Amino acid sequence: MNNFIRIGEIGFGIDTDCLRTFVGSCVAIVLHDPVNRTAALAHVQLPSAFDQPPSDLGRFADTAVPELVRRLQQRSRLEISPVAHIAGGADMFPVSQARSVGRLNTAAVKRLLLSRRIPIVTENCGGTLARRLVFDVRSGRLQIEMIDPPPIVTRQQGVKP
Predict the structure, then answer these.
(1) Could you tell me if 126 and 107 are in contact, meaning their C-beta atoms sit under 8 angstroms apart?
(2) What is the sign of the dihedral through the CA atoms of 82, 38, 44 and 57?
(3) CA distance between the termini of the chain
(4) What is the largest CA-CA distance in the chain?
(5) In this structure, is the dihedral angle defined by the CA atoms of residues 71, 141, 144 and 104, taken in order, positive or negative?
(6) pLDDT at residue 27 is higher than 70
(7) How far, CA to CA in Å, does 19 sit from each of 1, 30, 41, 140, 155?
(8) All domains in the chain, ordered by first residue
(9) pLDDT value at position 159?
(10) Cα–Cα nearest to 61, from 50, 46, 71, 72
(11) Which class for 98: exposed (0-12), middle (13-18), buried (19 or more C-beta within 10 A)?
């Protein structure tokens, strides 16, 4: 089955499933348990829920990471030993390098994974381009396609082609 995960959502896959998403400044977090052949993907939009109960647990890094772990544990027969793949966090709206939403998202995700001792085996974050992602649960492979922005075409007023 092919599952497309939208902003704020969490998707779950087993064995032959593929999890898909498209991220810019958002960060996709895949937790993969190769022993149980399960994976969960969150499409994180912001670093923190700031103590507000979110309706979408995948929207915020601080609610997404614990929920990904919970879902893997809930659906696994054995003890889980997940590894993480992360991608996204681009500077899509560069207001300032220090306050970039993409950088803040990436830093929050990495900090939360580290605090749970979940190793990051794939990291493709930053830059200015969006990414299309496909995670194959069985192989544990994350395919990342960088997406160039379309060219901007303008016409001068009063000029006929």
Answers:
(1) no
(2) negative
(3) 48
(4) 70
(5) positive
(6) yes
(7) 8, 9, 7, 11, 40
(8) 2-147 (3.30.1330.200)
(9) 57
(10) 46
(11) exposed
Distance CA 95, CA 28 (A): 22
Q: Which two tokens stand for residue 25?
A: 């400044």
- How many CA atoms, within 13 angstroms, populate the side-chain half-sphere of residue 90? 16
Output the pLDDT for position 5.
Answer: 97
Please write the tens of the pLDDT for every residue from 82-96: 999 999 999 987 666
- The percent of the chain in helix, strand and coil, each rounded to the nearest 5, is 20, 35, 45
- Whether residue 161 is predicted with pLDDT greater than 60 in this model: the reply is no
- Provide CB contacts within 8 A for 114, sequence distance 6+: none
pLDDT > 70: percent of the chain: 90
What is the token pair recorded at 75? 């659906």
Q: Using DSSP, state whether 78 is helix, strand or coil.
A: coil
**pTM reported for the whole predicted model:** 0.88
- pLDDT tens string 102-133: 999 999 999 999 999 999 999 999 999 999 99
Complete edge-to-edge strand list for the sheet that includes strand 10-14:
10-14, 38-44, 27-33, 83-88, 120-125
How many degrees, rounded to 5, is the angle at CA 36 between CA 30 and CA 41? 15
